Amino acid sequence: MILKDKRIIFVHKQKTGGTSISTILSGIGDTIRIHKHASLTDHITRLNDHNLDHETFFKFSVQRNPWDLAVSHYIFDKDSIQKKWDTISHIRRYKIISECNFSQYIKRVMFYGGSYDRYMCHKGEYMLDYVCRFETLQQDFDTVCDKTGIPRQQLPYLNKTNHKHYTEYYNDETRQIVADHFAKDIKYFGHKFGK
Prior knowledge:
By secondary structure, the chain is of the alpha/beta class. The protein has a single domain (2-189), classed as 3-Layer(aba) Sandwich (Rossmann fold). It has 9 helices and 7 strands, in the order E-E-H-E-H-E-H-H-H-H-E-E-E-H-H-H. It has helices spanning 18-25, 40-49, 66-88, 92-99, 102-107, 115-120, 137-148, 172-181, 183-189; strands spanning 2-3, 8-11, 31-32, 58-63, 121-122, 125-126, 130-133. The strands form 2 sheets. The protein has a 5-stranded mixed sheet. Helix 3 crosses helix 4.
């Protein structure tokens, strides 16, 4: 999401509370349309199309523990497939996921991730001004509001997935697959399994 008049870029990563943030931001000002889960580079390119300098924009996103994120993707995908099966059963990815248990899902890397390069960097350079933590989302979003001059608001809780604590889904192998896939995120943000 790009708020043109407020000079804010929100890079919406999947399963990180982004729909809740977008719901609040969409009512605040003039927006420039962009794909919901566009990369930071896509946002900057879109600004260039409008002859706007990204360096004058406050850029932020949300980071979530990768092991928790992968479980959330799995539960969300399974629930979505079940609800929409009649219309999506012909799509190969959804057919595969419908037949996967969690371990198979992780081994086939059916989740989205590796977010550090895609959502936080442009041309290899880290470019965000602030990163909210999913685990402290409201508090961190309040900080974004304070930094950008928009009024603080309570975030709605949207697209929630209900599941056991993420640690209960993993074995050593699947835990390592996620660690490898999100290595940069884990290193940069200091994520630990179980915390």
